[in-house]
Amino acid sequence: xxxxxxxxxxxxxxxxxxxxxxxxxxxxxxxxxxxxxxxxxxxxxxxxxxxxxxxxxxxxxxxxxxxxxxxxxxxxxxxxxxxxxxxxxxxxxxxxxxxxxxxxxxxxxxxxxxxxxxxxxxxxxxxxxxxxxxxxxxxxxxxxxxxxxxxxxxxxxxxxxxxxxxxxxxxxxxxxxxxxxxxxxxxxxxxxxxxxxxxxxxxxxxxxxxxxxxxxxxxxxxxxxxxxxxxxxxxxxxxxxxxxxxxxxxxxxxxxxxxxxxxxxxxxxxxxxxxxxxxxxxxxxxx
Amino acid sequence: xxxxxxxxxxxxxxxxxxxxxxxxxxxxxxxxxxxxxxxxxxxxxxxxxxxxxxxxxxxxxxxxxxxxxxxxxxxxxxxxxxxxxxxxxxxxxxxxxxxxxxxxxxxxxxxxxxxxxxxxxxxxxxxxxxxxxxxxxxxxxxxxxxxxxxxxxxxxxxxxxxxxxxxxxxxxxxxxxxxxxxxxxxxxxxxxxxxxxxxxxxxxxxxxxxxxxxxxxxxxxxxxxxxxxxxxxxxxxxxxxxxxxxxxxxxxxxxxxxxxxxxxxxxxxxxxxxxxxxxxxx
Lengths: 287, 282
Prior knowledge:
The complex is a heterodimer. Chain A is mostly helical. Chain A folds into 2 domains: about 1-30, no CATH class; about 35-285, MetI-like fold (Orthogonal Bundle). Chain A contains 12 helices and no strands. Chain A has helices at about 5-30, 50-55, 60-90, 95-110, 110-120, 130-135, 145-175, 180-185, 190-220, 225-230, 240-250, 255-285. In chain A, helix 3 (about 60-90) crosses helix 7 and helix 9 runs antiparallel to helix 12. The two termini of chain A are about 40 Å apart. Chain B has 2 domains: about 1-60, no CATH class; about 70-245 and about 260-280, MetI-like fold. Chain B is built from 14 helices and 2 strands; from the N terminus they run H-H-H-H-E-E-H-H-H-H-H-H-H-H-H-H. In chain B, strand 1 (about 105) and strand 2 form a beta hairpin. The longest helix of chain B is centred in the first third of the chain and has 31 residues, at about 70-100. The radius of gyration of chain B is 24 Å and the shape is globular. At the A-B interface, helix 1, helix 3, helix 4, helix 5 and helix 7 of A face helix 1, helix 4, helix 6, helix 7 and helix 9 of B.
């Protein structure tokens, strides 16, 4: 094909994206080497001081990072299990198939922060329906103010919000599977459980990996749910990395330090997601 | 065995359905409550537990001067930003995706797959990393707190999605149709516009739906990059939350904001059932 034209197709998109992104990324790196804060807003040069502070003197950043890992891995595992179960259930003929498919997709279409505002009233400790119904059993968990339970509240909200996305990807995958292996299994008289373990699941492995990685990427950005639901509290018990960087950078205006954190965070994200992708590919495809 | 399986299946579906629907039902009933029925204990059923009224819905259309919640302007702002950014992302993303699907690129060690990966990998970027430079950058060119600034930022969020879906879609559109068009005397642009695009409408619709979803539900950038001049819907509604908790108008506005995207759920389901989404995942 003609070689000149291909650039006309590719370049507008590529250059717009690079054009918008290149400045911020270079700027983050440069900013991270400066002591920009509200008293001293300017791009001075203080070397690696911010990074030294980050690695030696800021346990709160690392705590928030481990909390983020815990939250995102837990939610993604739950989303995968539930999403797969739901997709498998509405894959074949059941009554009102399309109704359930649409219904299961709906939470994904709703704005997370707005639904979180609703969830906040839902889990309200004295005026919310959850504790009202639970009072029958004489328990009243502090959904938003107990350091441990608040984490699970975040997980519940995240699972509600994003299981539909997992469901969508997995159902699309199931619908695209070839029919022959299932016919063969049916002829061999395989039970539903065996059919799932030996036919459906292996065929779905590549799609599962893709879906899990996509969801991990999105889950690692959890921030607005936390902001609205608990504001990182009580204390710092639901604070995630993004939220901590947000507080340092755009609330306390320690721009330089926040930039060094966000750059470190970006590098950690890229490395860990690459490793997770490699490991998952190995585990799911070899077995 | 089989009966148990079917029972468990329907049991699980019912439980999940209740879980999905519960917050919506709660919001719907709360939107008809008044101060007494919110703060005087938990109430569920209208006319039985509490006397419903339309106050929560009325404040949505009142002017702010009369104590109303002005969500009409944020609503249109949100729609404008989402649609414009989606449209630009789709146009640019589709062109790039077409190039990546049909031609081979090579610059040193960079090949087609690497370019595609570059586009898609922008989703990995945590929004917070971009927010600080964007904040300083937009304020230096006076685009902070403006629709244009937001649209620029949203293009970065949405174009990866458009490229991701369209590359896979174009890979499924047979190459022969563009080759036939070229032999028939079209130039590459005509072949693209007149032959390839009309055959890609399902892909374009799916990509468009995804762009609209991810544009409409964004809160973070709107929250950081706008203040008073321009307000988007999510920011406006979250701001309601921090005041005295008027749960009724909060619930009503939440439902109003969520409503348009329910239509998107129907469209996505339709294309899903037709099998048009399957290629995008692999």
